[in-house]
Design brief:
Elements: E1 16-22, H1 30-40, E2 45-51, H2 57-65, E3 70-75, E4 89-90, H3 92-97, E5 102-105, E6 111-114, H4 117-127, E7 136-140, H5 144-155, E8 160-164, H6 168-181, E9 186-189, E10 203-206, E11 230-233, H7 242-249, E12 254-255, H8 258-262, H9 265-271, E13 278-279, E14 282-283
Parallel strand pairs: 1-2, 1-3, 4-6, 7-8, 7-10, 8-9, 10-11, 11-12
Antiparallel strand pairs: 3-5, 5-6, 13-14
Amino acid sequence: MSDALPARSAISGTTRLYVVLGDPVAQVRAPGLLNDLFARTARDAVLVPVHVAPDGLGEVMRGLRRMRNLDGILVTVPHKIEVCRYADRLGPAADVAGSANALRRNPDGTWLADNFDGAGFVHGLRSNGHDPAGTTVALAGAGGAGRAVAAALLSAGAARLWLYDPDSARRTDVLARLDARWPGRVRAGAEGDLGDAGDRVDIAVNATPLGMSPGDRLPFDPARLPPTCVVADIIMKPAETALLRAARDGGRPVVHGRHMLDSQVLLYEEFFALHAPERNGRWEP
């Protein structure tokens, strides 16, 4: 018997719509993953990428909210913080982090936003054999994904987190959010050179866009980390960033960005209620 995925039905007037918003969108993997999920669950739905720059986000979101056949929105760089303004309610992870990567339309027409970056990242980390409980973490990037990853790591038991971001306002906002929930466990700085913390770091994470484009500088120097330090990147494309290559060449264990998104698929299935159709009075996969 073939293991091939079932072919999805043709798009029609009954097809439900989902979008992923970003700038850029060439790197996004969500269309392949979610459309495969729609096919497996025989759901009449499709997800497409929408390329929108920051100055057009408000106009696009106002239009999307009015589309009656749109059920969900995924969000990638650089919109995860700003998109919270267009939700009627924030879920727990989005509320703590102040950023969202998924919005769904509720039955009453309101929109709920939440963030699964952090949960996906921690799940991917653990699936690679690295439990963050009790560790010291250095994280570069306090943007939409970075703050969600930071919150999830602290929630998973990270003992101390060093957060680096050159934007002082963003750094101050994230530090206040995290310190209110996990007092005394977070320190913040402007530069990603790891400072005096480098020799005490167990897990180092890049949550910036550095590495998406050829010629990008490294977000931090992995050579300054202990030989046993796990180096992780949230970038999906390229699969192996310059940071991960340098870390691997130096003998350090690495975790690729794809694990974060792969781990989110089940979370999306629950959030968007992407169940199989009911047949003969029972649910079938």
